[in-house]
Amino acid sequence: MSTIYDFEAQTIKGETKPLADYKDKVLLILNTASKCGFTRQYADLQKLYEQYRDQGLEIIGFPSNQFGGQEPGSNEEVESFCQVNYGVTFPLFAKTDVRDETAHPVFQYLTEAAPFKGFDTTQPGGQKMDAFLREKMPQWMGDNSIKWNFTKFLVDREGNVVNRFESTVEPADLKGDIEALL
Description:
The chain is an alpha+beta fold. It contains five helices and six strands, in the order βββαβαααββα.
């Protein structure tokens, strides 16, 4: 049976990094974008990282331009944007595809291990995303693929995917789930 440690990816600096380097860490893996309505989540993700990294949390961001062209810059531009605007110090990886047939193997694995369960339509943000995607990309709603930027996957210290949180879930709302694994 696979774990996240079976994969590797290119860092934002272009180096190949085995995810096995994160063994014994709790991981929050997500796809990101610099020009998205959810981009502001970088600030709270950085706060989570600062609060929990000494206890074993690693946050890993994968910029992607697959959702409305909201990550148009180069890897260097993405890294600079995240550092200058949000003080991001958690690891960023190279821009990559996270859905469809070109999805990076990491995201193929994550979406298989943690299927899409829908948006929380009891919340206004969940209602809006659900309605938007049903209208604009209805073909995306019937599978387990990433639906939009800032989809988050929580992975335990053994490399097993524990949970999936859609774009509309705020990073601060993950504290309880993170603390349970630390």
